[in-house]
Amino acid sequence: MTQIIFLPHEEVCPEGKVIDVEPGVTICDAALRHGIEIEHACEKSCACTTCHVIVREGFSSLNEADELEEDMLDKAWGLEPESRLSCQAVVGETDLVVELPKYTLNHASEKH
Ligand code: FES
C-alpha cells in the first residue's frame, strides 16, 4: 500500500488526511474513495483543471503527464512545477504528499 498525505485545505479537508491506497489508482479516485471531495468537473476525462493538485513529495514516482494534461495544466489556477491533474496522476509505490490548491478555476472565476 502507498500512503498519501493530503495537506489541510480549508474546504475539502480542513484537518488534512492520511490515506493508504493500492498503487495503480489515480490520486483523484484515491481521494474520492476516502471522502476527500476533489472537484472533477469533467468526470476525470482530462478536459478541465478542477482536479488540479500539487504533489509536494513523491512527484517523480508518478506516471508522466501526457501532452493533453500539460496543456490543460497550463490553464490551472496556481500552477507549480509539481502540479498534476489528479485524475491523470497514477499512484506508484512511493508515498506522496499532496496539496490541494486554494482555488480551482471554477472558484477563481466565481469569486475573483
Ligand atoms: S477531472 Fe477534469 S481533468 Fe481531472
UniProtKB/TrEMBL annotation:
Q: Where is the 2Fe-2S ferredoxin-type domain?
A: 2-104
Give the highest taxon in the source lineage.
Bacteria
Q: Which InterPro entries match?
A: 2Fe-2S_ferredoxin-like_sf, 2Fe-2S_ferredoxin-type, Adrenodoxin-like, Adrenodoxin_Fe-S_BS, Beta-grasp_dom_sf, Fdx_isc
State the needed cofactors, names only: [2Fe-2S] cluster
Alphabetically sorted, this entry's keywords are: 2Fe-2S, Electron transport, Iron, Iron-sulfur, Metal-binding, Transport
Similarity comment: family membership = Belongs to the adrenodoxin/putidaredoxin family.
Protein name per UniProt = 2Fe-2S ferredoxin
Gene (name only): fdx
